[in-house]
Amino acid sequence: MLLLAVSLLAVGLVAMSVVVNSALRGYLEQRLDTQLSASAKIFGGLPPAVVFGATQINRTGGALGTSLFGDPTVTYLTADGTVEDVVNPPHGQVDAGPALPQLDTAAVSARGDRPFTVASRDGEERWRAVALSRGAGGGSVVVSIAMNQVDGTINRMRAISLATGLALLGVLAALGWFAVRSGLRPLSRIEETAAAIASGDLSRRVPDLAAAGTEVGRLTAALNVMLVQIETSFAARAESEARMGRFVADAGHELRTPLVGIKGFTDLYRMGALPERQDVDRTMAHIARESERLAGLVEDMLLLARLDERSLRTSGDNNPGDAFPLELAPMDLRTLAADALHDVRALDPSRPVELTGPGGGAPSSAPAFADEARLRQVVTNLVGNAVAHTPAATPIRIGVGTRGEHSVLEVADQGQGLTPEQGRRIFERFYRADGSRSRTTGGGAGLGLAIVRSLVTAHGGQVELLSAPGQGATFRMLLPHLTDHG
């Protein structure tokens, strides 16, 4: 860029120098022609002896000789162009006079008193000349003046222009170099940041090197926004890969546990270690329970996989119904709350349970546009979770109604509650808040609450957890009010 700018400036300076020198040459030649025409009119009518006398005055130091007219050379020619006499300037060299062409009467008449340029006889100078007819006497006279002053002035002007132009180009090139380096310094910093990010440092950002309204400022802001999105995407991908790794490991462990039990019982039977009929029946009952547990675990994992596919298609603006269809219809969450009340009593008849509104009070209508079968699965998981993870005789409250623009159904217990860390992870797959529970006795696989959140999210709702150690836990399902779907 600097080379291009300097090149354009050099072309501009050369063009300006040519124009200025041409204009100056034209002006000086015009002045010389004016002086030459005046001299020709004066000396053209004088005889050679008078002109010669004028030159002698100049030689003796007089001030009224031919020097007043530029010390011309006066050449007298006959009618056929033969040189009759030559009066040279007092300080001139005879061999350095003008080399005139053949000028007969016709040639002089053709030039029409117009000045013309000729070379000197030694070829080192140029002369400006004008030819005039001598009138009745016949022949002609040619008055010539050396152009060494004009050429010298032009040559000096060219030298001055060249020296000045080169100095100016040098100074501007140096200043331009520092200006360009200073202007490109932000881009160099951007390049360094990009190189650091390419090396793996996704936390690097482009520093603010210019005002926000400048091109570099806007570029910096845009790049930093892009870098934040890139870092977020990489972090999300890393987290997704880590979660997938944990999911695969936990799923393998969960699937292996019932399979190992089934294989162990079948090995006992094959080895003849079950001689009595009651031993076989008891073993087959264990195999049936483990098979049911294995089937339920596989169903839960398939359900989560389909819900994940629906979520991905929804974020990609595709039709999510192909991945996981929901049979949506108008319904009232009070139906699910009443059934949940009966479920708690069936699971633990001794446990106190009540039906209220959200947070307490009287229950109220909670219309929603949802898949009743899937929401029944959500409520069943919440109720089962409350019964399984709280001591016997711990009260449970089921709340239903509306809150703002949402229809609400909540399941609250007065158990031991959850710590903040447990609350953050409670909806993760295969996570168990109670790590002491065995995977083989009474403990679930840790997929129930993950299914709850995924199913509610598929309905466009959300699940809230309100809990603190020693204060119980409340799982609240919020769905868009029915009028929002109208």
Task: Give an overview in words.
β11 and β12 (473-480) form a beta hairpin. The protein has helices at residues 2-43, 48-59, 105-111, 148-198, 215-270, 277-315, 333-347, 372-388, 420-425, 448-458, and strands spanning 73-77, 83-87, 116-119, 126-133, 140-146, 329-332, 353-356, 367-370, 396-403, 406-413, 462-467, 473-480. The model is unreliable at 62-67 and 436-443 (pLDDT under 50). The longest helix is centred in the middle third of the chain and has 56 residues, at 215-270. With 486 residues, it is α+β, with helices and mostly antiparallel strands. It folds into 3 domains: 2-154, Beta-Lactamase; 215-320, Helix Hairpins (Orthogonal Bundle), CATH 1.10.287.130; 326-485, Histidine kinase-like ATPase, C-terminal domain (Heat Shock Protein 90).
Helix percent band: 40-55%
| Sheet/helix structural class | alpha+beta
Rg on CA atoms, Å: 55 Å
CATH H-level superfamily title of the largest domain: Histidine kinase-like ATPase, C-terminal domain
What is the highest CATH level, the class of the largest domain? Alpha Beta
- Total beta strands: 12
Give the helices and strands as they follow along the chain: HHEEHEEEHHHEHEEHEEHHEE
CATH-level-2 architecture of the largest domain: 2-Layer Sandwich
| Overall 3D form | rod-shaped
- Main sheet: strands, sense, barrel: 5 strands, antiparallel
| CATH fold descriptor of the largest domain | Heat Shock Protein 90
Kindly state the mean pLDDT as a whole number? 81
DSSP strand content: 5-15%
What's the total helix number? 10
